[in-house]
């Protein structure tokens, strides 16, 4: 039986439950399925009345894609270690295996780098709307990494360069072409900032940051952004991407970049994250690169559900729960087939999100459907059947205290 590295076999009979797997990851996923099969009240933090009944049967299960994740933007608004851990718990329950943390952007720098201390202490001192911001010390970041690893989740840190860098440019004058530090920024515009790609200091800065992040991150990937570089001339951007790839490689990691990076020459192994423009993703594929699928009209879970949503943006689409479920990564973009795709990643940008409740309301109930897009074979996915299963997760959302959106497209069991 081919269970691969992440699959499991779950055999439930009247007197025994057996999980078999090749690796510990599979045993972990088998135990998540047991959690989902038992009544949601097992998740309660107080003593509950049994009996704990579970259906008998056999489940053989393994994921379609090796990469199943969410990008959480902790730069536009900062989220604490405990909030990130709670998010990791949600990902684990739905058998996702990566959390991509957006650690830097125009509005904030969120990770301590001891050789460039102002990045965090000054560059991290605010956020969208002018709040206090914050950053993770290296110890706190390690705490997040370890907490995730215990749940078989890999942290992918992102430092976005050369654009989306105002927080760094405000912290260090020497990163600017004119040698003058910018002001901190608390708005929500994009595409206005750039590192000075012609200065050697810029590459020393990137090398220092990458070396430290590589040392703190056990997983194979570092994400280096590369999106919306409207303030960087194209002739500067292309060689910049080549140098950044070489820096990441020299520290033993594989680089991931947003789709725009595929305009440059990719080194073998570099992974491109598709979000908007299929041509860029096709560029990556034609260079032999692999793609993470994050099409904004489907999995940008910072998008409003509909025009009445109290949170979220809508530049890509209104994304109702059925829209975010009902798509197939393998056929979504012409020229990008199953063999080109390493997985699916939702993106939760935080321009409009300030609290954990906000994060939960955007994430639920879309997350389980996106997890399925990454896990289940296309032919087994069907909204009419799925929406009934999703409705049954309401009990879990409630017992976990998750603030979720009661979409009209889902036949909820409990009426409010
Ligand atoms: C874009 C942009 C982000 C925004 C997001 C909002 C990418 C890759 N860059 O996606 O900076 O926050 O949209 O939806």
> Briefly, what CATH class of the largest domain?
Alpha Beta
Shape: globular
| Helix coverage percent | 25-40%
User: What is the radius of gyration computed over CA atoms, rounded to a whole number of angstroms?
Assistant: 21 Å
Bound molecules: ligand NGO
CATH superfamily of the largest domain: Glycosidases
| Overall mean confidence score, pLDDT | 97
| Helix/strand structural class | alpha/beta
Q: Might you state the CATH topology name of the largest domain?
A: TIM Barrel
Number of domains: 2
Strand content: 5-15%
Specify the CATH architecture of the largest domain.
Alpha-Beta Barrel
Q: State the major sheet.
A: 8 strands, parallel
Number of helices: 14
Across the major sheet, the strand order is: 8-5-4-13-12-11-10-9
Number of strands: 13
Question: Any overview of this molecule?
Answer:
The protein is of the alpha/beta class. It folds into two domains: about 10-60, no CATH class; about 65-400, Glycosidases (TIM Barrel, Alpha-Beta Barrel). The chain has 14 helices and 13 strands. The strands form three sheets. An eight-stranded parallel sheet has the order 8-5-4-13-12-11-10-9. α2 runs parallel beside α4 (about 140-150). The radius of gyration is 21 Å and the shape is globular. The chain binds ligand NGO. Ligand NGO binds near residues 258 and 313.
Give a short overview.
The chain is of the alpha/beta class and 416 residues long. Helices cover 32% and strands 14% of the residues.
Name a few traits of the molecule:
416 residues, TIM Barrel, 2 domains, binds ligand NGO, eight-stranded parallel beta sheet, three-stranded antiparallel beta sheet, alpha/beta
